[in-house]
Amino acid sequence: MDTIVYGRNAVLALLAASPEKVEKVYFQFNTAHPKLKEILIRAKQLRIPVGKARLEKLCEIAGTTKHQGVCALVTSKTYSPLEEVLDAPRNSNPLLVILPGLNDPHNIGAIIRTAEAVAADAVVLVEGKGSPLNAAVHKASAGALSHIRVSKVRNLARTLLFLREKGFQVVAADMEAEANYTAVDYTRPTALVMGSEGKGLPPEALKECGSFVRIPIAGCVESLNVSVSAGVLLYEAMRQRLG
User: What domains are there in the chain, each with its CATH number?
Assistant: First the structure.
């Protein structure tokens, strides 16, 4: 589970000593304290997500009124370097799920739950993008977060290029794609890239995706929830791999 560190000096010290453990820093609205500005600048330099909250909400997050306008979310989840995942894969042909910027913790948790259910090798996040691995993600994953490896990378495009050079096919879901999602050979080393809610994939990532697939829709809705789309692709991958 996650821990909250609050107070200006405590958060500043945390950013100096263990920035890799900080998932997000929350600030109070309408404050101009110089130390808070220092914390904000430092968090952005470290590419740590930041957010603002009203006084009541910040008190709720911190669990106290003595937060001094700032608190930091620290996760107990240990990240696995991507190279380490590839050196000791769970499968002979690794299966990765890459989430470059999902903001809904329930979507992230649901995808992590499905990824663990199909025995994917890891879920890959991008630093400074999307929701932190907070209590809502833990809950939505139904315990799966404790069992699956999670990696965090600095640059999405470079990571996708690195994976392609390692022999991975990079597959992204796209409503306009010509190929059906069942047309891909998922028995190969595969990285599934899921775009963020509403915005999809950034242009730099699109350039590194080798395959684009669509999930057919027969009803009136225009698209599926991202966690549902991820589930469809992951279970097709497992179906093929189980023969």
Answer: 2-75 (3.30.1330.30), 82-242 (3.40.1280.10)
